[in-house]
Amino acid sequence: AFEQSKEDFTFYIRTYADLQRLSKAVNSNEAIFGTTKLYADASYIVVNDILKDDDEDPLTPIGNETYPFTGKFDGQGFAISNLEISGVDYVGLFGKTLNATVQNVHIGDNPNTPEIEEGGTITGAGNFTGSLIGYAQNTMVSNITNSANVSGKSYTGGVIGYVMGYGLDKVQENLNTGEPQNCYYNITNSGSVTASASNLGGIYGMAQHITIKKTLNTGSVSNTSSDIYNVGGLAGILHRTSIYESANTANIKADKAYYVGGLAGEVILYSTNVIENSFNSGNITATTNVGGLIET
Prior knowledge:
Helix content is 7%, strand content 46%. By secondary structure, the protein is mainly β. It starts with a strand and ends in a 5-residue tail after the last strand.
């Protein structure tokens, strides 16, 4: 069982085995002993760095299409290193999240020991692959770094494969109030990101109805098959999503790909998106429909 804090329904994550137990509990829709409260809806606090040993089994993503993670997960700035995660759809540390909060997590190299490379690999054979979350819906995400290498098929991002926010009205409310709701901020990816199908980005495969702020991609972005669409340094595709104080400095190699941009590949409903104080300095190699910042 998890070590429980004095607060109701708050648990400590100390070991890789705890992450495995959390995955099993959430994916089986398990209730906390003696209650009707689900483990998926509880709060979790990481209390130290976690390193997966090479002889330990790969991690099954926490949450899936049927039973998403709906709670709170605070990494407290600790690193979760040498992760090995694979699957078909909904692949990441969290497979699918709904109305959740995930914050203060380092995936891969430990910032406290930069001389040691402990990145990890995240591999999806289908839709929705990211190092942190495969598919995030109405989820608050902040203060994240990733150095694990990510590869997927469709909707592949260095951090999140597909993110769906609360709606444009909430985005505007967030900008006016400064509240973090619906604003994905202080997120960095340095791992390589590759995909064999459309909607590929250094941070997000697709971002819809959110605000992106203080986000940086330094990990290379490339496709592994021809005739794919929507490749970007930050996001493959944006829909009613704005970008502030963010950048891509990585090279984008999108051979035989269409709609390729330094920040975003394709932008839907362009008039509802804002890009301010953001730039691309990476080199772009692509076939057609190429833009330095965006291609619409």
